[in-house]
Amino acid sequence: MEAKLYHLATSLEDAHKKLLENPRNVLLGGGxxxxxxxxxxxxxxxxxxxxxxxxxxxxxxxxxxxxxxLRQFEKHPAIRAVYSGxxxxxxxxxxxxxxxxxxTIGGTIAGRFAFSDLLTALVTIDVRLMxxxxxxxxxxxxxxxxxxxxxxxxxxxIKKSPGTxxxxxxxxxxxxxxxxxxxxxxxxxxxxxxxxxxxQGASLAIKASEYLAKIAFPTAEDFAxxxxxxxEELKFLSTPTGSESYRKTLTCAYVRRGLIEVAKNAG
Amino acid sequence: xxxxxxxxxxHRTFDVQPGEFLLETLRNSNILSVKDGCNESTCGACTVxxxxxxxxxxxxxxxxxxxxxxxxxxxxxxxxxxxxxxxSDEGADQCGFCNPGLAxxxxxxxxxxxxxxxxxxKQYLVGNLxxxxxxxxxxxxxxxxVRDEQ
Lengths: 267, 150
Fold this sequence. Notes:
The structure holds two protein chains of two kinds. Chain A is α+β, with helices and mostly antiparallel strands. Chain A contains twelve helices and twelve strands. In chain A, the strands form three sheets. In chain A, strands 4-5-8-6-7 form a five-stranded antiparallel beta sheet. Chain A has a four-stranded antiparallel beta sheet with strand order 9-10-11-12. The longest helix of chain B is centred in the middle third of the chain and has 14 residues, at about 75-90. Chain B is built from five helices and five strands.
């Protein structure tokens, strides 16, 4: 990768000022996608000296610094415990250990990657993003926003609630991008369903959730109906790895399985 | 620019470009055990250890190594000899290209996971690809190493 300069930021203010100096200046999270997508840059701005690599658990939430590596994230006891560990499960399926040692949760989220496994799991949860300077937005709002931002993601705040989750990644091989990924969460007596890599990015199946919300004790047939609704309400496209109809079929199957599993685990 | 880190136990200083990755820096310094397999963060042939943890050197900026400890197989001769002996015993060697990266990942696995199951071992090794062996003989050798079976 060609770059004229490397800058190790000494503060968020320093990093932000550097970022605004030139549109060809690039912020580095793990740097893996930057390497793939950037032929040349003016200045590479490194955030590793800013202590953004801590995970703090409180009564209400888990606060994850943007420079926490995916490996650190998947191994943390609080992440392994919350929502029956499905966030850790979603993270573990991303490439290999050496890759996850470098990739960061900040880079994963800031990039709004349509193929991201972790984003699909995260959109089912109440997640807020803290940016410098002074902005807090929900993950869902951030993913729906258009255009680049010059704000710097500093923290990911994951709300804790009792609940159980399910995650499934469908891919040709372990190291491939997903053909589709599915997350189902049962929390606060509600079912949340998200599907990503459609190939479009993670999206909540709202109508499917609303359907289930009207049923006090959903049966297997209700879960099948909800899965059908999810596969109809979400949009899919055909790519070389999978056709639109294949992705719809996968959605129907795995959403149904996910609903059955979380219902069983929730007792 | 200059970067200073400990390479295989010795303090070293390297002249690097801002956008240079550790794989290139190491190979330019004649550490040829670190292989350029794909240069796409996928195959694991370029694996090195940073502070004991496996990373992909093809995707790690050299400047980020400042102050850290980098290990290649050249700095782990005794442990690598044990792993190599087991690989030979199980017939897990063919071209050998994946071996340095795989050996380092195996060494890190043993230090990190206590009493791993077969599934945990496989999951840990998923990022080290081999085009030759079909993985079974390697898996047997690695299990023996991790479980201290001679």
